[in-house]
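Example A, followed by Example B.
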Amino acid sequence: MTSLLEGAKKLVSRSTDIGARIEGLDAAIVASRGRLPDPLLDESQTVLERASSRLWLSADHTVVALAGATGSGKSSTFNALTGLELSAVGVRRPTTSWATACVWGADGAEDLLDWLGIPPRHRVLRSSMLEPTREDDAMRGVVLLDLPDHDSTEVSHHLEVDRLVQLADLMVWVLDPQKYADAAVHDRYLAPLATHREVMLVVLNHVDTVPAGRLESMVADVRRLLDADGLAGIPVIATSARTGQGMEELRREIATRVAKKKVVRTRLEADLRGAAQRMGEATGTAPTPKLSKERVTELEEALAQSAGVPTVVKAVEDSTRLRANRATGWPVVAWFSRLRPDPLKRLHLDLGSSGKELAGRARTSVPAPTTVQRARVDSAVRTLADDVSRDLSRSWGHAVREASLSRHDDLNDGLDRALGATELGAARIPVWAGLVRVLQWLLLLAALGGAAWLGAMFATRYLTFEMPATPEIAGYPLPLLLLIGGVVLGILFALFCRLLVRATARRRARAADRRLRAAIAEVAEELVVKPVQDVLAGYDTARRGIDQALQ
């Protein structure tokens, strides 16, 4: 079917805008699938396929269908136009549900008749029956159909009428003076085809039975009813198949329209416009809405709270402080910090590569969202969808809301993956903390060296050994200064570094918060925003396609 559509568009693209109409309707149907009711889209698809198929068939023939109720004289009119007794009339009407076709100019008509579904035994070539006449030349290219009675009690008859009414290029409705106001023809056929008035004619037959003084008012009444059906301006021809009155005018009207070679495309354009109008009514005319940044921000904030971003940020700050204090604290007591659990490890956010292998992926142990947090997420999603779909039609608004919830069950896993995959920046201690660690150990070694020196001095004096003179600084023994200075400076330095550690921890927490929220925004984009935007893009495509088909 795709190749047929493409071929049809190429076939007509240079000479008419019907190719653009086909392209627009096709795009609108594809974009609306799953968002508008399937029966409506299937009907539009049928119109599209019918138009594409008709464009491939004979452009030299025009299908003219005579339709009417029982007793309207439709078959008599058919016989009068063809000059042949092809259709049985009155009580001799056949019970078959097939239409009869008479063709003027046979070249290329076979495929068209096959497409119309006319059996070979119901086909007549006008040129094979009589010698060509001037009338035949005027009617060349006409495929005249005599349809079954549309009000027949046989279901197969009016089903055949319904089918061929959709396929005919030019419809001629034959009305009876006694039943021209019958709702069966007006409500079922004429009014629904109001968009096709350019390819319709109305014949008031049997006018030989109408008193001369009433004919004009009767024709005026027919026009009034047609105006009420939305068919203002279509020709109404008064005829009598029995006497021949008006038959020449009817034949001339048909021949003139066929000669202009516009009927086929006019009918197809009317079909495409009609399908586009029906889709347009279901789609609406609202401009394509855009997602509000405010609503998206509210959604991201709700997801961040639900995912436990504040908890993780606090853990990053506490973990950075713990690790940095361990590195910069006085080594004698800093090792006690190893007895405290690392906040990030408790959340399974710093397991390392081996931990991820054990867990299969970066699975976290962040506390599950509370009922309030879940409700806040649901409210944010609902508000976002309601805000963007406020002016859309019911079908498209429902599609937006469905899209916003289409991946709702994946939110928890998506948020958890986002937390586990985000680089929090707490694994490495600051460079300056490494330098402080070296300095602390040097101070500790100095203190230990001074203590050992003093111990050696006391031991030698106790054992009455002679020792070299002890160096002094400002009157104080150097070993004592090393001991006291190493301990005091180490402790003071550790206390000072706590200020630096606190500032570093806050800075890393802010950086982690930004990265986590960026990851949460990606989850919101993937699982909520993008599905909604896809629907909005589909709406925009459908709206543009409908407008293109209607232009």
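Example B, a separate protein, is given below in the same form.
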Amino acid sequence: MRSLSKLFGTFILMTALVFSIGLAAAGGKAEKTAAPAKKALTRPDLVIAVQKIPPVLEPMRENSNVHERIVYSVTEPLIFIDYKHNQKLIPGLAVSWKRLDDRTIEFKLRKGVKFQNGDEMTAEDVAFSFGPERLFNKKRGWTFAQMYLGGIEPPKVVDRYTVIIKSKQPDFLLEKRFANYMSEIISKKAFLAAKDWETWSRNVVGTGPYKIVKIKTGDYIKLASFDDYWGGKPPARTVTFKVVPEVAARIAGLKTDEYDIITDIPPDQLAGIDKTEGISTVGGPIPNIRTVQFDETNSLLKDPDLRRAMIMAINRQLIVDTLYHGRTTVPNGFQMKLFGDMYIADFKSLPYDPEKAKELIKKSGYKGETIHYRILPDYYTLEVATAQILVEMWKKVGLNVKIEMKENWSQILKNDKTRNLFNVSNTAFYNDPVGLIVRRLGPRSWMRLKNKYGGKDALYVFDKKFDKWGKILETSTDLKTRRDAARKMLNYIEYENPTQINLHALTMFYGKRDDVLWTAYPAAGMDFSPTNLSFK
């Protein structure tokens, strides 16, 4: 990397110095040292240091990585994804399922499954979970869940352990929808007994291996073992997700046995952890693309030439090679290789071309106005560092971009004249373009609708043809027809109407104690069930 600019050399040096100072105060990382042995407990209290926690755990109320990692332990879907065996679908709360037609699926439920309040789960709970009181209530779960399940009709209860769910249109991904985020089953009785929606959202009752003990906003979320869990007695007595914003503090706590697992480790810190006896790193890229979103409804970014210029001014591979030490990849458009036959390998993203970017800026009529870039400090790994580099790259082509630090998502998404750019991560939940392009940018996405963040306008104004192609993706079973639709959608959001800058595959690196036997999945959820957690 001898060709790196002085900007990158200086930035990387300063970053390394900051981390070195912080870690030196915590005991250093240069020499191989031994972490203290973990106290022998029959069932330990597991402590995970995280950069952030969500304010609530209702599955349909949040749509974030920090939420998904915790709710995974509390609630469960009808179908499970086996991440250890090529992400195949396996029985979960449903022991079996079958297609009745191209719109309809029948589930046979697992008998004897208990909710964390002691009640047995039945078809009534499944129907309620996806019914008018919760999923279709626009004051409750509708905003986020519709991106995943908005195409279904209220379920039909056949008997105590059988339920039928129908889609409003043919949907060959129906099974995958009920194996993913937003499809978790909750207790009807507990929901109706809750004082209000806010109370319920902080006291969710599901079927998972751990139940909620306490949510202390901005500090920690504590879960306790649900010993009547249908999958066996959970291996940890309690699981606490503790907010520790600073990377250096998380690493120091891992070394001193304060934390058993730490999340969101920058790639340049992995080697130091692996050199310390008793602790090591796991994880890597997950099926998620980190993007910078444009608000094209804002007059400043309305011209597509300006947005094209902002994309072409960014050397994404340089960011991956330097900040991420080559431990992740630059996507080829808004798609992933895990789409298999639906991956359009010969699609070409807008290239890095700063000279062309300058031409497009001039053509757009941009006059040097301030473009505001809102970020949450390191909500994503290296978010601030990446933003600073992007700003410098934009500056080199004549763009005046200003970083604005925000405290929460409400501030990030507030619709006013300074909502120009912000960061988002985009998970492909279905291993198909529907799970990424349609879910995130289709007509049911919160980015296209009025939402709870006070925006009177959506982020995008799309041509009707985009949604027509999306419907083909959701309903057609012909591979050639679906690939053609996917290609057209990729071309539309990259060239014709640029929506975002596709930076890189999101990484989720963890540090953990070696006496904690736990596998990090290629997903945001953290599995602490008996099948994926034990202790030496």
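On Example B: Residues 143 and 451 are 7 Å apart (CA to CA).
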